[in-house]
């Protein structure tokens, strides 16, 4: 909009003309401002009425489920942890399970599908290794034995090799449930304990040394022989040659006194086999084994458990509890933790 005015030099002063022009300009400006204000008022929307519509909530979202605040079926806004938690609800990690296919992972975890896949497999691997170690809880297995047991489980992938599992091994589980192990029960039946050798010990005669290290808490072998009553053991002890009479293990089983008769060189139930345990010598100061009594199917079993780490070629020793010559006069209390 153009405003103009003329200044006359004929009929009045210049100042009078300027005042008139200023008054005209102010009048036109006020009119313009009023017009613009009216235009704004006419174009403004009416005031909004208070909403009575309840706030939108996603289907399946509750106060107790904070891991998935996106619409059903969407994984666009999940964190990596929330995505993994969501996947686990449909595909929990198990020993024999398989991870979901990629299409399923994408629908559940979105951009974190690869992260969830790798983490799922990692947790399953850890679970499987722990399962193997627990199977051999109190006795170090050989690599071949671990490999055979893994093959028996049917795990063709996602499992560590036998060598690395053996390297991770250490005694585990409660000592009071050691004989729950199928591995130890088999050793007691077959008497094929590994890592032991009979040797001539200076000043003692025969003894038992180890051919591999044994860890503290590991089961080394059992004391094998015929379980008889204390009275029967005393009779055998009295009628046996002195050099053989020491192979009578008297012990207390609760309130009952019993004896393991191992005075014969060969075990009657294992023809042609000389068991190691009967040759383990005594020491009250240098003992590295301790016997403990167990009951398996109503039968007494005495296991020798390492009470410290034992080095290769070290002799096995345990405290008889009494002088060997008077061993038949007392019995060891073998219930300990």
TrEMBL record:
Q: SET domain: which residues?
A: 194-321
- Region ranges (Disordered): 40-73
Q: What SUPFAM superfamilies does the record tag this protein with? A: SET domain
A Pfam short name: SET
Q: Which InterPro entries match?
A: KMT5A, SET_dom, SET_dom_sf
Its Gene Ontology molecular function terms? histone H4K20 methyltransferase activity
Q: Which GO terms describe its cellular component?
A: nucleus; polytene chromosome
A Gene Ontology biological process noted in the UniProt record is: regulation of transcription by RNA polymerase II
Listed name of the protein? SET domain-containing protein
């Amino acid at each position: 909009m153009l405003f103009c005015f003329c200044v006359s030099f004929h009929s009045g002063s210049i100042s009078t003309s300027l005042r008139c022009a200023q008054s005209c300009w102010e009048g036109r400006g006020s009119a313009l401002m009023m017009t613009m204000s009216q235009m704004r008022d006419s174009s403004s929307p009416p005031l909004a009425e208070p909403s009575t519509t309840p706030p939108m909530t996603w289907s399946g979202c509750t106060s107790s489920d904070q891991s998935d605040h996106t619409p059903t079926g969407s994984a666009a806004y999940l964190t990596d942890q929330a995505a993994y938690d969501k996947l686990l609800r449909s595909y929990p990690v198990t020993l024999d399970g398989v991870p979901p296919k990629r299409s399923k992972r994408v629908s559940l975890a979105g951009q974190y599908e690869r992260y969830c896949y790798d983490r799922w497999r990692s947790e399953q691997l850890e679970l499987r290794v722990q399962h193997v170690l627990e199977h051999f809880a109190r006795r170090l297995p050989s690599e071949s034995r671990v490999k055979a047991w893994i093959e028996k489980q049917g795990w063709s992938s996602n499992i560590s090799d036998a060598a690395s599992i053996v390297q991770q091994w250490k005694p585990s589980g409660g000592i009071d449930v050691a004989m729950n192990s199928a591995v130890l029960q088999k050793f007691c039946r077959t008497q094929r304990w590994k890592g032991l050798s009979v040797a001539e010990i200076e000043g003692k005669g025969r003894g038992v040394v180890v051919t591999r290290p044994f860890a503290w808490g590991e089961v080394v072998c059992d004391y094998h022989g015929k379980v008889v009553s204390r009275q029967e053991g005393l009779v055998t002890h009295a009628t046996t040659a002195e050099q053989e009479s020491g192979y009578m293990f008297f012990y207390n089983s609760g309130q009952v006194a019993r004896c393991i008769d191992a005075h014969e060189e060969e075990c009657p139930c294992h023809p042609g086999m000389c068991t190691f345990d009967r040759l383990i010598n005594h020491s009250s100061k240098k003992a590295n084994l301790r016997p403990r009594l167990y009951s398996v199917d109503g039968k007494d079993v005495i296991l020798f458990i390492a009470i410290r780490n034992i080095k290769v070629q070290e002799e096995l020793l345990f405290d008889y509890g009494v002088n060997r010559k008077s061993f038949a006069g007392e019995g060891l209390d073998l219930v300990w933790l």
